[in-house]
Amino acid sequence: MRTEDVLAAIATGLWRWDNASGTVTLDGEAARLLGLPAEPVTLPEVAVRSRFHPVDWNEINGIVNLAVAEDTLAEARLRIMDEDGRVLRTVRSRSKPVENRSPEGRVDYELIGTIQEIAEPQPGTTAVHTAITGDWRRSREAFLLDAGRALAEARSTAEVLRVAASLSMPGFNPDGLAVFGVAGDRLSIIGHHGHGPGDESPFSDMRVDTDYPAAEVVRTGRAIYLPTPGAYLERFPATWPLAQRFGRESWAFLPLISAGRTMGAWMAAFRHPVSFSPDERSVLTTVARMLAQALQRAGVAESERELTTGLQRSMMPQLGPEIPGMTIAARYVPTGGGLQVGGDWYDMIPLPSGRFALVIGDVQGHDVRAAGLMGQLRIAVRAYASEGHRPDAVLSRASRFLAGLCSSQESDSTGDCDYQSPRFATCLYVECDPETGLLEVARAGHPDPAVRMTDGTVLMRPTAGGLPLGIVPDTDYPTTRFALEPGETMMLCTDGLIETGGHDLDTGWARLRPVLEAWTHDTESLEELADLLVQAVHGPSSHHTTGPLADRREDDIAVVLLCREGAACGCGPAFPHGARPPRRMAATVAQAEPERIAGARHQVRELLHDWADADQVDSAVLMVSEMVTNVLVHTDGDALLVAEAVGELGARRLRVEVADASDELPHKRHPGEMASSGRGVLLMEMLADAWGVDPRGAGKSIWFELYERSKPDEDQGPDEDRDQDQDQDQD
After folding, report:
1. Residue 695: strand, helix, or coil
2. Which pLDDT value is given to residue 554?
3. Number of neighbours of residue 369 by Cβ within 10 angstroms
4. Taking a C-beta distance cutoff of 8 angstroms, is the pair 630, 666 a contact?
5. Which parts of 130-223 are beta strand (E)?
6. Distances (CA, A) of 680 to 586, 607, 622, 666
7. pLDDT of residue 705 exceeding 90
8. What whole-number distance in Å separates Cα of residue 113 and Cα of residue 96?
9. Cβ count within 10 A of residue 615
10. Strands 87-101, 74-81: parallel, antiparallel or unpaired by DSSP?
11. 577: alpha, beta or left, given left = phi > 0 and alpha = psi -120 to 50?
12. What would the pLDDT profile of 658-669 be if each residue is shown by its tens digit?
């Protein structure tokens, strides 16, 4: 006897479901059990799917996926429907998923198994809607694991509600959901699914003592199951008319309990009858607990975000009214994690003199205490500035204020080591005259400002500075004065913009400099430049949202851009008169500060960072060092250094002047082999293309010039070069 005959004798059919091709192959008995002619047939998946009850179809997908993952049999109990939607019979399916890998590498599977008719369970028993025979618990566990993971990943109340609406419970999928909250003595609708707009209005402001299932659940903390409309009418006759119009057959109302407190209720409504067996009640209770915890977490997260946003908005001021002739843009990006607040800040302060001040600073730390100290320090700096104090006096008073504030917190602390430790802050204070562009800068341990010049070159502008605020209460802060020329842009930033990503000050500055120099838009897009600077550190738009790039934020970032509007503006390749604007720098080296000679050498090298011949750059730096040193050694005054590069790239002329107040002119010496001085003029003759001394009314100015060349000419010496250039000048 054939195997097919044996299976037909015991009413068992064979089927083969190919997921890749979307076809189902049935033998004669399987086709009969599905309500088709009793003969072997291959049908599309949709034709077979139409024979199953929709609820059972949703369920069998989860069973098959679980069997594929665990390499086990998929067992299910399915109801077969006719074309009119009536249940013909109930069958039990047992199948084995077999993986098939396509040539393209895609993984599909085939279901190979049997279906067999079983007796229909009697109404009212717990097996009426138990669609899984011997596999209910595995299906339930798979569903609860998926539901728990989805709810745990939800970050807001709206996301939690979307996840709850998409849950497909095994065997009894609800089509109507509602989440009730409690506000005082009234119920509120947090969210709902499966209802039309406005359907929630009768329930949105209901008293807790109303004869309504959700209200009773909130009062008692116990679930209510209503398997039939008659049960609903019998138990809650007063509110039955409100529920009757939705056409549901069964309802479950469960308490949402978190940390022992009933925070609301969850309603699951069904269009098909549900008996609410112990297994079904267990699933609903578990989902309600996970839903309550997810809503609690989402509420805490939303409160923290609201606190963070409010704290940032209160601490980060607006830049104020527009300033004629000036454009300002600013950004603040908090570090990743926690409340997203830190110790960086910026401010713009109108001054009594008609000028304005730009302030940027960084309090040590990235925590709530740093944010609190930052807020207090910012208010103090604003108060001192508004009183009309000069930049150095503002920082001196701010340092005394922070030192006293930290010492008082230390004495008041009750054991928290973090709050006992003193904190310091760096700060850069710039007072600006919008009419002349004159800037007066006082710096307390903060990075120097950077200036983008009219030809697009960006230079770090060294300024005199003192200790960070709060370290020594009485500290002096020298003031540096320089002018922001029309078309130039100044950048103030905290160290987070420079040092994030493992960079130090040098490599971080090398990363930001091309961004500033490549900016080619007009002054109205200064906001775009601020975005580009932040993006250069950790990706686009990260200062607007927390997002996936938030974890890369190693330090807070504050950046302020100030552009003095002008015709050249340095923001494009075209220059107003067809010629590239000159590139200038100036520095003063005082007798009492010989260490600033190194800063002067650095500024000259920065000015010539794109000079074609590196040897000429070294020569210029050497001559500048020699000229400034001679002033400090042989005179009693300070040295004023001015450097200017004029012309097109590759054919520029560098002129450097060092002025002093002495009338004694330099003269050529012939030092011996062991002499330690007297070679200044010799260096000028050997290295400069031209040099000279110009007497002035009070003192003199020593100058030299270098003419840029792409490659050094090895065929002729420096004397021949200089003679030819001088002859050309005379011609």
Report:
1. strand
2. 61
3. 18
4. yes
5. 176-183, 186-193
6. 21, 22, 10, 9
7. yes
8. 6
9. 11
10. antiparallel
11. alpha
12. 998 887 777 666
Length of the chain: 731
DSSP character for 207?
B
What are the backbone dihedrals phi and psi of residue 90, each rounded to the nearest 5 degrees, phi first? -115, 135
Q: Are 56 and 79 in contact (CB under 8 A)?
A: yes
Bridge-based pairing of strands 450-452 and 458-460 is antiparallel
Q: Are 399 and 465 in contact (CB under 8 A)?
A: no
3-state secondary structure (DSSP) of residue 42: strand
Task: Please state, as a whole number, how many other Cβ atoms lie within 10 Å of the Cβ of residue 632.
Answer: 20
Give the contacts of 596 (CB within 8 A, at least 6 positions apart). 587, 589, 590
Q: How far apart are CA 158 and CA 191, in angstroms?
A: 8
- Tokens coding 290: 């996970």
Helix-strand-coil percent breakdown of the chain, rounded to 5? 35, 25, 40
Beta bridge partners, 493, equal 559
| Paired strand residues for 521 | none
Q: Which residue, among 497, 495, 493, 498, has the nearest Cα to 509 in the 3D structure?
A: 498
Q: Give the amino acid at 2.
A: R
How sure is the predictor about 474, in pLDDT bands with cuts at 50, 70 and 90?
confident
Q: Tokens 């002619």 map to which residue?
A: 37
Yes or no: say if 441 and 449 are a contact pair by the CB < 8 Å rule. Answer: yes
**Residue among 46, 17, 48, 30 nearest 110 (CA):** 17
What is the pLDDT, as a whole number, of residue 46?
Answer: 81
162 vs 650: CA distance, rounded Å? 63
Q: Which conformational region is residue 357 in: left (phi greater than 0), alpha (psi within -120 to 50 degrees), or beta?
A: beta
3-class DSSP state of 685: helix
| Cβ-based neighbours of 58, under 8 Å, separated by 6 or more | 168, 173
Output the CA–CA distances (angstroms, integers) from residue 166 to 56, 59, 665, in the order listed.
Answer: 17, 14, 90
Question: What mean pLDDT is predicted for residues 312-327?
Answer: 72
Q: Give residue 166's pLDDT.
A: 72
CB atoms under 10 Å from CB of 166, counted, come to: 11
pLDDT at 676: 56
CA dist list (Å): 489 to 106, 299, 357, 431: 56, 44, 16, 15
- Token couple for 414: 């009750």
Tokens 């997203």, residue located: 340
The tokens 């920082």 sit on which residue?
Answer: 395
Of 619, 631, 606, the residue nearest 705 (C-alpha)? 619
Per-residue model confidence as pLDDT tens digits over 415-435:
454 555 678 899 999 999 988
Q: How many helices (H) and strands (E) does the chain have?
A: 20, 27
Mean of the per-residue pLDDT values of the chain? 79
Angle (deg, nearest 10), helices 136-153 and 278-315:
10
3-state secondary structure of 469: strand
Q: Is a pLDDT exceeding 90 seen at residue 654?
A: yes
The answer to whether the Cα torsion of 146, 147, 148, 152 is positive or negative is: positive
Structure tokens at 98: 């077999």
* Planar angle of CA 295, 172, 76, nearest 5 degrees: 125
SS3 318: coil
Q: Is the pLDDT of residue 358 over 90?
A: yes
User: 271 forms bridges with which residues in the sheet?
Assistant: none
**pTM for this predicted structure:** 0.56
Q: Tokens standing for 367?
A: 């925590």
One-letter amino acid at 60 equals I
DSSP string, 488-555: -EEEEE-HHHHHTTT--HHHHHHHHHHHHHH--S-GGGHHHHHHHHHHHHH-TTTTT--TTTGGG--S
> Which tokens in the block code for residue 406?
């930290």
Helix (H, G, I), strand (E, B) or coil at 22: coil
